[in-house]
Specification:
- The protein has 327 residues and is an alpha/beta fold.
- It folds into three domains: 93 residues, Arc Repressor Mutant, subunit A (Orthogonal Bundle), CATH 1.10.10.10; 109 residues, Periplasmic binding protein-like II (D-Maltodextrin-Binding Protein, domain 2, 3-Layer(aba) Sandwich), CATH 3.40.190; 99 residues, Periplasmic binding protein-like II (D-Maltodextrin-Binding Protein, domain 2).
- The strands form four sheets. Strands 4-3-5-12-6 form a five-stranded mixed sheet. A three-stranded antiparallel sheet has the order 10-7-11, with helices on one face. A two-stranded antiparallel ribbon has the order 1-2.
- Helix 9 links the parallel strand 8 and strand 9.
- Helix 2 packs across helix 3, helix 2 crosses helix 4 and helix 7 crosses helix 11.
- The radius of gyration is 24 Å and the shape is globular.
- 33% of the residues are buried.
Length: 327
């Protein structure tokens, strides 16, 4: 969205900067803002869902237009110059107004066509969401779902996505939606690995036995609920490797290196995974489908919230059956 605006620059801005800045559109400013926030071209590229080279070319073009340098590349990343700080301030002033206008316009959209941007965690996008997307596409083939996975929390208020599917015990007051069910987490191992010989067929073991007698795949300590649980319960000498998220942990479990905690829904399409414990009550986490309050009446958002939400709820309700016993 390109919007021609005249910005109130700081008193230190030169006449040349004022003239050039008056020709900048919002699309230019959001690139400057993304780099300023991320302190890197790659981080800005991820937030804008474009390539690193696209961000670099765009910043260079803006600098050429203004005939000033917007960023200095230091050891700790890209830092705004005085001119860059001026544009960053202008962008921060414009951003909520542009986002609010976009949400208001989209909120009245009654078409069941177009692009719907969905954000969620990697593990949900790989093992849970595809079934729901297939059901949604069957009912609404003219709506194109665009799935974005990221470790950073996506801001729906800034229109970085239209719908969020989150595993969380808390949700922001600015978002509306519903809880789809509980994500239950168990300890899993890989069929045929040497440590599985310790387990009788069809038997689940106490957590105390699994913690003391088996090699484990840990996590890298990002202060998530399962990071804290592992830190509090595992013996350091039993951790043979660490992963940054559930899909990485699953990849390590596949090698036979050790056991790990994983959501039950992961085992739906990975039959070689074998549950070794009952669900860990302390790790049970609600799954939510959420949107910004301004978007709740958008036709394609409302359709996705209903159809995909119901599908996800059904999957969660039945996935425990796949983990009922060791095969």
């Amino acid at each position: 969205m390109h919007t021609k605006k005249n910005f109130n620059l700081t008193a230190s801005a030169t006449p040349r900067e004022e003239l050039a800045a008056s020709r900048l559109g919002w699309d230019d400013l959001r690139y400057v803002l993304a780099v300023a926030r991320a302190s890197s071209m790659s981080g800005a590229a991820r937030s804008l869902a474009v390539t690193h080279s696209t961000v670099l070319r765009r910043i260079e073009a803006i600098e050429a237009s203004l005939q000033v340098r917007l960023f200095e590349r230091l050891r700790n990343g890209y830092v705004c110059t005085d001119a860059g700080e001026t544009l960053r301030h202008a962008a921060e002033q414009c951003e909520p107004l542009i986002a609010a206008a976009e949400r208001q316009i989209m909120g009245g959209d009654t078409r069941l066509t177009g692009i719907l941007r969905v954000t969620t965690a990697h593990v949900v996008s790989i093992h849970l969401l595809p079934r729901a997307l297939a059901r949604f596409h069957a009912e609404h083939p003219a709506i194109e779902a665009e799935v974005r996975t990221t470790r950073e929390r996506v801001d729906l208020a800034r229109r970085e996505a239209d719908v969020a599917i989150r595993m969380s015990t808390q949700v922001p007051d600015t978002l509306v939606g519903r809880q789809l069910g509980q994500v239950r987490i168990r300890v899993y191992g890989w069929r045929g690995t040497p440590y599985m010989k310790k387990i009788s067929k069809g038997r689940l073991l106490p957590l105390s036995t699994l913690i003391t007698d088996f090699p484990w795949i840990g996590f890298d300590g990002q202060d998530r609920i399962y990071d804290r649980w592992l830190e509090a319960n595992l013996l350091p000498q039993n951790i043979v490797a660490r992963a940054d998220h559930f899909p990485s942990a699953l990849a390590l479990v596949r090698t036979g290196m050790g056991i790990a905690i994983l959501p039950e829904f992961v085992a739906l399409d990975v039959p070689q995974l074998l549950p070794l414990s009952e669900p860990v009550a302390a790790l049970e986490t609600p799954l939510w489908i959420l949107t910004h309050a301004d978007l709740r009446n958008t036709a394609r958002v409302r359709a996705f919230m209903q159809v995909a939400g119901n599908a996800l709820s059904d999957i969660l309700a039945h996935c425990g059956l796949a983990a009922s016993s060791v095969g």
